[in-house]
C-alpha cells in the first residue's frame, strides 16, 4: 500500500526559509517541495502471530543516504491478545501522530503544526525493540509501551547540516482510548552521544577557540564547552488529547523538553486545533506556540584591550560573533495561528488549503532555515499559504 501528497506553498519572509521538518531542506517563497512526498508500506504476515512492516518515504530530504528513507522496518510478534513486541526500526512513539505523521490524508491539516511537530523531527525513528501491553478497562482500551534503542538524525539548514547521534533512547507511553476520545502520555530519556556539523569548517573553528589564551578571552573555555557538548542527557514529556465524533474534531498536545545539550535548547510547546465537518468539508483553526525555558545565553566576549595588534582583535571579534550566532541559531520562540479547510473529494483522497501566520521572536528562529553565520535581527513575521492533494492507495 502507499500514500502520497502533492503540494505547493508560499512563504512571505525574505530572510527565513520555511520547513516542516528538520530532516528536509528549508525553502524560501514559492515551492512545490515542502509538502510533496510519496510513501510505500509493505506488510507481510508469516503467520497469525508474526508479521513484517517496512515503510519507505521519498521527500525533500537533504540527506540522500538510502537507509534514511526507511521510516520503519520491523518484525512484530503477538504473544497473545494482550502482549506484543517488535524489533527493528520503529517510529518514535511520542505523540498523537506517531503512527501516521507522514500520511497527510490521515489528519485534517496540510501538515502537523510545526511549532510542536518540527522539533520532534530531530528523532524520526528508533532502532531497537519495543514491548506493548493492551487491555480493556472502563469501556475503553489501555495501551502501554516501552521502547529502547538508538537513533541518528540529520538536521538541515540552508547550507549546512548537523548530524546528532543518540547513544540510546528510552521511551514509555500510556494511552487510553474510549468511544470518541483518546489521551496519550509519553516520557522519554535520551543520551546524546556526539554531533557532527557539516557545511563549514567547524573542527577548525573549535580548534581556533581552544588556541585562544584566556588572557585574551576570559571564559573562552566556557564558550567552547557551550558549543561542543557531547554525552549529555535529554528528557521529554508530552501529553496529547483527541476528540472526534464525526462532526467535531479537537486535537491538542503539549510538551516539555529539558536538555543540557546546546544544539537542543530546552523548550515548552503545544497547540490546540478545532474543526467542524460540513458534509465533505472540514474547516479548522489551530493555535500553536513554542517557547524556550531558558533565555538565550550571552557568551563571554574577548578582552580586546589585551590584543597585541588590530589584526588579532579583528580575528577575536570574528570568533566571538560566530560563537554567539551559533548559540542564537538554536533558540526557539514563536507563535502561530492557522486556518484551513479540508475537502474529502473521495473515500481515499482529500484537497486541503491552509493559511498560517507566524510571529518569530529573534533570536528564536531555529525552526526556520538560515545560512551559516547569517545575522538575523529584529522580530519577524511570515505568512505561509499552502495547497495540497493527498491520497492513499
Key terms for this structure?
53% strand, 17 strands, 4 helices, 393 residues, 16-stranded antiparallel β-barrel, mainly beta
Description of the molecule:
- This protein is mostly beta strands and 393 residues long.
- The chain is built from 4 helices and 17 strands.
- It has helices at 114-120, 202-211, 220-227, 310-328; strands at residues 2-11, 29-31, 37-45, 50-58, 70-78, 83-91, 125-137, 140-156, 161-178, 181-198, 232-244, 248-259, 267-276, 281-292, 332-346, 349-365, 380-392.
- Strand 5 and strand 6 form a beta hairpin.
- The radius of gyration is 22 Å and the shape is globular.
- The N and C termini lie close together (6 Å).
- The relative contact order is 0.16.
Helix and strand topology:
Blueprint (H helix, E strand, L loop, with lengths): L1 E10 L17 E3 L5 E9 L4 E9 L11 E9 L4 E9 L22 H7 L4 E13 L2 E17 L4 E18 L2 E18 L3 H10 L8 H8 L4 E13 L3 E12 L7 E10 L4 E12 L17 H19 L3 E15 L2 E17 L14 E13 L1
Antiparallel strand pairs: 1-2, 1-3, 1-17, 3-4, 4-5, 5-6, 6-7, 7-8, 8-9, 9-10, 10-11, 11-12, 12-13, 13-14, 14-15, 15-16, 16-17
Amino acid at each position: 500500500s502507499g500514500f502520497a501528497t502533492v503540494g505547493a506553498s508560499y512563504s512571505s519572509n525574505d530572510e527565513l526559509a520555511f520547513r516542516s521538518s528538520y530532516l528536509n531542506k528549508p525553502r524560501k517563497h514559492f515551492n512545490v517541495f515542502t509538502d510533496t512526498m510519496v510513501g510505500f508500506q509493505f506488510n507481510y504476515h508469516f503467520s497469525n502471530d508474526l508479521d513484517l512492516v517496512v515503510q519507505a518515504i521519498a521527500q525533500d530530504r537533504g540527506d540522500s543516504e538510502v537507509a534514511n528513507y526507511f521510516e520503519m522496518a520491523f518484525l512484530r510478534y503477538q504473544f497473545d491478545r494482550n502482549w506484543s513486541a517488535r524489533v527493528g526500526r520503529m517510529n518514535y512513539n511520542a505523540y498523537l501522530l506517531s503512527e501516521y505523521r507522514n500520511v497527510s490524508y490521515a489528519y485534517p491539516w496540510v501538515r502537523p503544526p510545526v511549532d510542536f511537530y518540527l522539533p520532534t523531527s530531530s528523532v524520526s525513528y528508533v532502532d531497537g525493540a519495543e514491548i506493548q501491553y493492551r487491555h480493556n478497562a472502563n469501556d475503553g482500551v489501555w495501551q502501554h509501551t516501552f521502547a529502547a534503542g538508538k537513533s541518528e538524525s540529520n538536521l538541515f539548514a540552508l547550507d549546512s547540516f548537523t548530524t546528532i547521534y543518540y547513544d540510546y533512547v528510552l521511551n514509555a507511553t500510556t494511552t487510553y482510548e474510549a468511544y470518541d476520545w483518546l489521551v496519550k502520555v509519553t516520557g522519554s530519556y535520551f543520551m546524546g552521544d556526539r554531533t557532527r556539523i557539516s557545511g563549514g569548517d567547524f573542527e577548525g573553528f573549535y580548534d581556533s577557540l581552544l588556541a585562544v589564551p584566556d588572557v585574551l578571552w576570559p571564559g573562552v573555555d566556557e564558550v567552547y564547552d557551550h558549543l561542543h557538548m557531547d554525552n549529555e542527557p535529554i528528557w521529554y514529556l508530552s501529553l496529547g488529547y483527541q476528540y472526534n465524533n464525526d462532526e467535531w474534531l479537537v486535537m491538542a498536545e503539549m510538551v516539555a523538553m529539558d536538555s543540557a545539550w546546546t544544539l537542543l535548547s530546552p523548550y515548552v510547546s503545544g497547540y490546540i486545533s478545532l474543526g467542524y465537518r460540513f458534509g465533505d468539508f472540514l474547516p479548522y483553526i489551530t493555535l500553536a506556540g513554542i517557547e524556550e525555558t531558558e533565555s538565550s545565553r550571552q557568551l563571554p566576549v574577548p578582552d580586546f584591550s589585551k590584543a597585541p595588534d588590530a589584526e588579532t582583535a579583528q580575528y577575536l571579534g570574528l570568533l566571538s560573533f560566530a560563537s554567539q550566532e551559533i548559540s542564537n541559531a538554536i533558540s526557539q520562540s514563536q507563535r502561530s495561528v492557522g486556518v484551513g479547510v479540508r475537502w474529502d473529494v473521495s473515500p481515499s483522497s482529500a484537497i486541503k488549503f491552509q493559511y498560517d501566520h507566524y510571529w518569530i521572536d529573534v533570536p528564536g528562529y531555529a525552526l526556520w532555515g538560515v545560512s551559516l553565520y547569517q545575522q538575523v535581527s529584529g522580530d519577524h513575521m511570515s505568512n505561509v499559504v499552502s495547497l495540497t492533494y493527498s491520497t492513499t492507495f
